[in-house]
Amino acid sequence: MVDVRRVKLPGVGVLHTFITDDGGKCGVITHRSGHSDLITFSDDADGADVTKVSLRLSEDEAHTLAELLGGTRITESLSALDQVPGLSIDWFTVDYDDHIAGQPLGDLGAMGVVGLTVVAVVRGDAANPAPSGDFKVFPGDTLVVAGSPEKVAKAFTYYRSGATKHRSAVDAPPGS
User: What is the pLDDT of residues 25-57, one digit of tens each?
Assistant: First the structure.
């Protein structure tokens, strides 16, 4: 397993870096705006003649590159669902300062987020499919969620900050 270092970049996003078996240094800067930068970098020990490369990727390009490089088994299993109109499948990696860190998933419907499903929680190399509301989430876990793009965004806001907006008619199930 590759040792990945995660560094928060205030006002920018998150930097993930690792060192390859041949000593190369690789990283991804995931910006808050949604795009990512794939980078190679050097440090003082590398000397001044090391080439550095940066490649800016849109959100779609970053997802495509992840798939090409061998996304998780969950990604492979869910890729066919990406073609369903109105359905968004996304991943939320839990950080130490996220509201959900150390907390159970809870009942999103009771918190005003109706129409969203937590498909799995990925912890290390193991997937925990269809976790119950009492499943405790830890920093480093990745939540795989499915729902409309708006519901996914609302759930991510809740996971980050604990904030939810008041329920509106749009959030209520049909007939309520």
Answer: 888 888 877 778 888 877 666 666 667 777 787
Do 31 and 15 form a contact (C-beta atoms < 8 A)? Answer: no
pLDDT in tens, 90-138: 788 888 889 999 999 887 777 767 778 888 888 877 778 888 888 999 9
CATH number of residue 92's parent domain: 3.30.70.1450
Adjacent-strand bridge partners of 7: 15
Q: Are 29 and 8 in contact (CB under 8 A)?
A: no
Beta carbons within 8 Å of 103's beta carbon, 6+ residues apart? 136, 137
Q: Based on the domain organization, do 88 and 113 belong to the same domain?
A: yes
Identify the bridge partners of residue 9 per DSSP, sorted by sequence position: 13
Backbone phi, psi, residue 67, to 5°: -65, -45
What's this model's pTM, rounded to 2 decimal places?
0.49
Residue 35 C-beta-side C-alpha neighbours within 13 Å:
6
